[in-house]
Design brief:
187 residues; alpha/beta; Rossmann fold; seven-stranded mixed beta sheet; 7 helices
């Protein structure tokens, strides 16, 4: 069995446990953590996670935020100026790009077919590195989570400190981690 299948099995065990309905949005977030080198393999085998979710009796919905920056930039009327002076872009990134990406996730969370029994899977968060904080993004959407939000996270965790793409700077978040490295829900 490959490492992705091992993580999918751990995820399947977790997602099959009865869900508490009266928990806060931050507690409805599950972060599936895997080595950044496994991104392509994970995407090729994401059906294993969908299958585990459906076998547990839950709906599966997904969103890929990989192209969020390109879509956001394409909509900006000053994009050409930012290409010639990228340092001017930082102010807009912190507020506007995070909001843009959060709006895309919230649009999926708000769909009528997404219920308290649904899993919404978020792929492509590695592409946000350097543009948006995953922590701020999750804080922006956590109030809209009805079922569970599963974030596929290329990086590591050390005592609730998540490190996207193994960067030095990390963020502390109280989600349920699932990993092969002995932390959180995958011990």
């Amino acid at each position: 069995m490959s490492r992705i299948e091992d993580i999918a099995e751990l995820y399947g065990r977790h997602i099959a446990t009865p869900w508490q309905r009266t928990i806060a949005g931050a507690q409805r977030v599950i972060v599936v953590i895997y080595d950044k080198e496994m991104e392509r393999t994970l995407r090729a085998r994401k059906l294993a996670f969908e299958t585990a979710t459906r076998q547990a009796g839950h709906d599966w919905h997904e969103i890929d935020v990989s192209a969020a920056f390109a879509a956001w930039m394409a909509e900006d009327e000053y994009r050409e100026e930012y290409f010639s002076s990228p340092e001017d872009l930082q102010l807009k990134l912190d507020e506007e790009f995070t909001r843009f990406t959060a709006d895309r996730i919230q649009a999926v969370l708000a769909q009528p077919e997404v219920t308290q029994n649904s899993v919404v899977a978020v792929f492509g968060v590695g592409s946000l590195f350097g543009f948006a904080s995953v922590s701020n993004l999750l804080k922006a959407v956590e109030g809209d989570i009805r079922g569970r939000l599963v974030v596929f996270f290329p990086g590591h965790i050390d005592r609730n400190n998540y490190r996207l793409l193994d960067a030095r700077d990390g963020w502390n978040y109280m989600a349920v981690p699932i990993t092969l490295h002995g932390e959180g829900g995958a011990i």
